[in-house]
Amino acid sequence: xxxxxxxxxxxxxxxxxxxxxxxxxxxxxxxxxxxxxxxxxxxxxxxxxxxxxxxxxxxxxxxxxxxxxxxxxxxxxxxxxxxxxxxxxxxxxxxxxxxxxxxxxxxxxxxxxxxxxxxxxxxxxxxxxxxxxxxxxxxxxxxxxxxxxxxxxxxxxxxxxxxxxxxxxxxxxxxxxxxxxxxxxxxxxxxxxxxxxxxxxxxxxxxxxxxxxxxxxxxxxxxxxxxxxxxxxxxxxxxxxxxxxxxxxxxxxxxxxxxxxxxxxxxxxxxxxxxxxxxxxxxxxxxxxxxxxxxxxxxxxxxxxxxxxxxxxxxxxxxxxxxxxxxxxxxxxxxxxxxxxxxxxxxxxxxxxxxxxxxxxxxxxxxxxxxxxxxxxxxxxxxxxxxxxxxxxxxxxxxxxxxxxxxxxxxxxxxxxxxxxxxxxxxxxxxxxxxxxxxxxxxxxxxxxxxxxxxxxxxxxxxxxxxxxxxxxxxxxxxxxxxxxxxxxxxxxxxxxxxxxxxxxxxxxxxxxxxxxxxxxxxxxxxxxxxxxxxxxxxxxxxxxxxxxxx
Length: 551
Ligand code: G4P
Description:
The chain is an alpha+beta fold. Helix content is 29%, strand content 29%. The strands form eight sheets. A seven-stranded mixed beta sheet has the order 2-3-1-4-5-11-6, sandwiched between helices. Strands 18-17-22-14-15-21-19 form a seven-stranded antiparallel beta sheet. A four-stranded antiparallel beta sheet has the order 7-8-9-10, with helices on one face. Helix 13 (424-437) packs across helix 14 (459-472). Guanosine-5',3'-tetraphosphate is lined by residues 27, 29-35, 153-154, 156-157, 268-271. Guanosine-5',3'-tetraphosphate binds at residues 27, 29-35, 153-154, 156-157, 268-271.
């Protein structure tokens, strides 16, 4: 039987875990992610003034500025994870909002951040509907059935019919929509939203800086106040709400948690309208830190529960250049179970050795609340001098590896070679380290001095070039590689593997974990090769640290 002290400790852990909500905002550029982030922080009391996040975004527009910002120790670390209490104050829940770079600096980072959250808020521009990057990001969320809350933004503009938007989300993103609020009008005639679950109309007043809790709420569709306020529109409003209530599927918490249905809210981020409803939905419906599947040493798997007392966590992001003098990097670790305490000793599973976690950074966007412990759902930043890689698991002794941190097959390719041939070694070393850090994917095509770089976003190349110069003192020449796609390969047996590698030698490369990769010059080639080798599997995704086993 557990001692009373142990029971108290595990009760405290369970209580703290149940109060966590960890999420990210996903959107196509310009849909309103920055604006919404800022308003969420404003409502959470984490920032006092609008403009803080926005200023940071504009300073990141140009690559060089971005690098400068990165160099300012601490700035980007604290803004990559924003923790705040909602409702503000000690009684509130702890919300962790993870930033996903979404603009010119869109890269693999975004994908990995999504492996560290338990829910996502998807922002859709009501005029534009579902856009390209939303589709990509939602695919990633689907890999883990992440629950999605949808915010249809910019209702203060002339936008598309709400029904059309829902239909588009359902057909393009293949996720069912359950409207929770329904907009009354749009643009200049935007009157507010009708909450289908609480039966209340929330009146829209443009430009309100911070909506107070007792802002105008009108109870019930029959309320005469509606006739008074909107004499010309009230009939249409009532019909519309009845119609949508009859025609739409009701919100179903189980389906939301399974990632198959998304509650939809309409609003206007810039006007603070509909923002509190998103926070409330996160509190009421988004899941607390979820169990995570991990592979054990004996190749079995087990679910690690968030409330297990032993500490575990995995690294999902590495941020470099926090302090250029020390080539210092911060590894972002998502705590999956137990409690982080400053100075604790942990087991570094990949290296098989002990490591002390001193001076890890915990994130509290509101400085007034100091926090030096962290539980499941929280993120800690660990100073890293190369010992930690993306995908690494830390535990209190158990040999576990958390699953599901993806490498995506790159879509852009460059060949790098040193300007000065005597610097080939430095180039190799630099690229190996940057590859381990996840800044870019590095392949060895086995053709002498050139190293093949693969990326998901073009800015990845620029950052790598700058970092090679400033950190490794190598100038490299980059030639566009005429490639369409890379695919990781698994083979049914060694014979097939040898034959494939022999026949397709000129199209083969190795990734940094020595996995065989097929490089396709164009789509047709990829298709034909796949048809020619029906027994060979071509993978567009692999997990970090994973050796591709034979099928
Ligand atoms: P992003 O991070 O997803 O890229 O979007 P961001 O929040 O930066 O918003 C993109 C543009 O959309 C911004 O305008 C922003 O002000 C505007 N916007 C965001 N929410 C709303 C809304 O609810 N209604 C309306 N009408 N506009 C909204 P911008 O002109 O690019 O920037 P700025 O000049 O306003 O700073």
